[in-house]
Design brief:
8 helices, 70% helix, 194 residues, elongated, mainly alpha, single chain
Length: 194
């Protein structure tokens, strides 16, 4: 019986949905980049939300594929229920370190795991819903002052690179785990000659 996953084995559907989120965000960014006159400062919020949701799903895919490498695998129910990008990024960092891929886990704007964690924290802090709910305690100026000077084109490039990196990492982790399990199976079923 296959192991229970956080998404009940709907890998293809989750992947297609994540790609759609990323494509929608990229489409809006491209439209705003072509014609700055159509942009108002609030247009940044939906772009961040689309990328944030795609990032959450990609992080969950990496954790789902890679937590078997950890001493204590992540509970699928906890993984399904969380929306904390920071928590997911911490687990992804642990997995990357455990498999020894620190030097390979890079893309434009993410030269190392420290910058990866910083970028994820930035994205979580830019989430318009979170900021609106917590604006009274964090920043009384609200969102508009952040979004007015926000370089959405640079943000999109960075996010596209990170999402592609996470996708490739999830695939590589799945393949690596399968190879390890195949090796264990071969050892376990080798006939003994008496």
């Amino acid at each position: 019986m296959p192991a229970e996953t956080w998404h009940n084995g709907r890998d293809i559907e989750i992947d297609l949905y994540t790609r759609s989120l990323q494509r929608a965000a990229s489409t809006v960014v491209a439209k705003l980049a072509v014609d700055e006159k159509v942009r108002n400062d609030w247009d940044v919020g939906p772009i961040i939300l689309l990328y944030r949701q795609a990032l959450e799903l990609r992080l969950k895919a990496v954790v789902g594929e890679g937590s078997n490498f950890l001493k204590s695998p992540t509970d699928p129910i906890s993984l399904y229920q969380t929306h904390s990008l920071r928590w997911l990024a911490q687990i992804v960092s642990q997995i990357i370190k455990k498999v020894g891929w620190e030097t390979d886990f890079t893309c434009e704007g993410v030269p190392d795991l420290k910058e990866f964690g910083a970028l994820v924290s930035k994205i979580e802090s830019l989430d318009p819903v979170t900021r609106a709910v917590h604006a009274g305690t964090r920043d009384r100026r609200g969102l508009l002052h952040l979004y007015a000077a926000f370089d959405v084109v640079q943000f999109a490039k960075q996010m596209d690179g990170l999402l592609d990196l996470l996708n490739a990492t999830a695939d590589a982790l799945a393949a690596t785990w399968d190879l390890q399990m195949d090796a264990v199976s071969e050892i376990a079923v080798k006939p003994t000659i008496h």
